[in-house]
Amino acid sequence: MDKLLSRINELSRKNKTEGLNENELAEREILRRQYIEIFKQNFRQELERIEIVDEPTIKH
């Protein structure tokens, strides 16, 4: 994931300074989609690990 983010950031910096050619634009799009898919998978795993516990109600 670190290499993926590093490359995305590298392309982003290059885009801001000198622009990207067609191949780099296509690569950036592919990398962004990969990053989003990995993020969604990790997030889904975190949600699946959550266990909801009902706390007893306290009466005053």
List the helices and strands and how they pair.
Blueprint: H1 2-17, H2 22-49
Helix pairs in contact: 1-2
Describe the structure.
The protein is mainly alpha-helical. 73% of the residues lie in helices and 0% in strands. It is built from 2 helices and no strands. The chain has helices at residues 2-17, 22-49. Helix 1 (2-17) runs antiparallel to helix 2. The longest helix is centred in the middle third of the chain and has 28 residues, at 22-49. The chain is elongated, with a radius of gyration of 20 Å. It starts with a helix and ends in an 11-residue tail after the last helix.
Low-confidence stretches: none
Question: How confident overall, as mean pLDDT?
Answer: 92
Structural class from helices and strands?
mainly alpha
Sheet bearing the most strands, described?
A: none
Radius of gyration: 20 Å
Tell me the series of helices and strands, N- to C-terminal. Answer: HH
Ends: how far apart? 51 Å
Number of helices: 2
Instruction: Tell me the fraction of residues in β-strands, as a range.
Output: under 5%
How many DSSP-defined strands?
0
| General form | elongated
Task: Give the helix level as a range of percent.
Answer: over 70%
